[in-house]
Every structure is written in C-alpha cells, then in structure tokens.
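Reagents: none. Just compute today. Noncompact Myelin-associated protein isoform X2.
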Amino acid sequence: MTTAAPAVSVDPQFPGNVTTKSRDQVLYQSSGAIVAAIVVGVIIIFTVVLLLLKTYNRRMRVKRELEPKSSKATTPPPLGPNSNSIKQPTTVTFIPVDIHMQNR
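Predicted 3D structure written out:
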C-alpha cells in the first residue's frame, strides 16, 4: 500500500514560505467543490425543467385560444328516435317519507 505525500504549495508572494496541506484538508476542500458542483447542476436542471414547462404551457394556451369553438359542446344532443346518442331509461323513484302529524 502506498501513501500519498502531503501536497506542497509555494506562495508566490512569499517565495521562502512553503506550506503543506494535510490529506484531510485536501479532501475537505475537494468535497466542498464537489458539493458546489452538485448544487450548481441541480439548479441548472431545475431551470431547464422550468423553461420546458413554461414553453409547454404557452403552446397549449395558444393552441386552446386558436382552436375554433365547437358548437357541439353548447347544443344538447338530439332526442329523436333516430338519434345516435346512448339512450338511458328515464325512471323516477319516489321514496315516501313518514310524516308524523301531532293531534292538538
């Protein structure tokens, strides 16, 4: 098993100053960068989905507004003997209610 040497960086403002970062510091900084990248990716995905939904909604609204109004929806279907509508039997069910009248 090999061990990684600590990262060494030279500060350009102080040429004689050499700093070393421990493995934990490097992992902590890289994990922060990974979390930031994930957050940015999620924001981009939400933005794309929002734009797609807005575009879809706009297209559907324009389609509904430009669609001619059908007169079939406003007029009732014909009820003659030659009508093609589904015939439903008309039945009236009367349920008697007991009415108690008080004698005075």
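The two ends are 107 Å apart (CA to CA).
Action item: order primers for follow-up constructs.
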